[in-house]
Amino acid sequence: MTTDTATVEAPTEPLGRRFSALLGSTTAANLADGVVQAAAPLYALTLTRSPGQIALLTAAAWLPWLVLGAGAGVLVDRTDRRRMQAIALGARVALLTVAAVLAATGSMSMTALVVLLLLYGVTDVLVDLAEAALVPDLVPRSRLAAANGRIIAAQQVAAAFVGAPLAGLLLALGAVWAFGAPALIAAVAALILLLALRGPYRPAPADPADPDPAATATATATATATATATATEERAMERAWRELREGLGALFGHRVLRPLLVSGSISNMCFTAYSTMLVLWVVGPGSRVGLDAGLYPLLTTVTAIGAVAGSVLVEPLTRRLGEIRTLLGGWLVLPLLLLVPVLLPNPWVIGAALGLIGLASTASNVLSQALRQRLIPGRLLGRVGGASRAIGYGLMPLGALLGGVVAETAGLATALVGSAVVALLILAYPLATVRQRDIESA
User: Among the residues of 47-80, which ranges form H helices?
Assistant: First the structure.
């Protein structure tokens, strides 16, 4: 009996031990994130019920992406990506320790909470960009979708499935626990990177004529010992601007990534406006749903369950439907699901809708990330990732503020419905311009 080798599928390449170490650190870091993200707005409700101030809290968390995202991408492409993550996580530990002390002494205010979340957002920019750029160095290109799926699943499980309910428990024990516990967890994430993921992870130069930045700096310092500090700074700035322009050109000049970026960024703005106001729609005696604050994290947990399902299903869905149909299909159903809490303000119905939202958004986000890693050269991933997130995440604080303004002037329901409608309309751009064959020929 003979076997037709043409019909035998190639064995699946393993993701490897180094990826497992990154995944472990990501899981710990996002567990801490989940506690902070769930605890901060709930803790803020003890300080204010103003939609504008709650919106300002969300805006502060996302503002660093707008201000620093593109520049941080250049930094990621110049430095060791593992080391950058570890340093940023260490800074996060320090911030959360300060927050715990303020909460313990009764000194916390909305102003202090906004500033702390703003600085926490800076660490998010560095950690997330370095992590995304590191993935292609750790796994085979054929497994990028699987690797990103596992990372997003770990993020959702840790942040929403475990972190959000844990935040409710920690807040019941005292606000100091809601900030102190994630500080310890973030420290564990940094230690995993330092101890389990060994080796340098500096991006390779474009070609031998464009050497490693650190080596270039050393050689230049030796050869031009008599040059002035001003001239050196000018050359460094020229190089930084050149690298930034290269990343922006690769992103905006790409016929697949450009429409996805524009649509995804405006959708992110809408979803942030929506989620910022949803807590006021659902939680408290003055809300439309009237849910107890301690139960609200359970809705986030349901979203995480859907996200895990989406991360598992993304590979088989992609094989059956193709990357673009799966990605845009997920984006298309999201705005429709956002209408459910407004039309049917029942906790059980809202929970079911949030579960489907988690599934659709995660499957689409996995593919969006994998496409960028697949279509962009590794040496540009930091800059392209920084530029795309600067725009995609940078519009989110604007969305939070707009959601607060609309809710203050026209009501919560108007803010929620308006966010869903705009997110639906913007999908016309990629639906009309992006095809699967564009990816295959890129």
Answer: 51-76
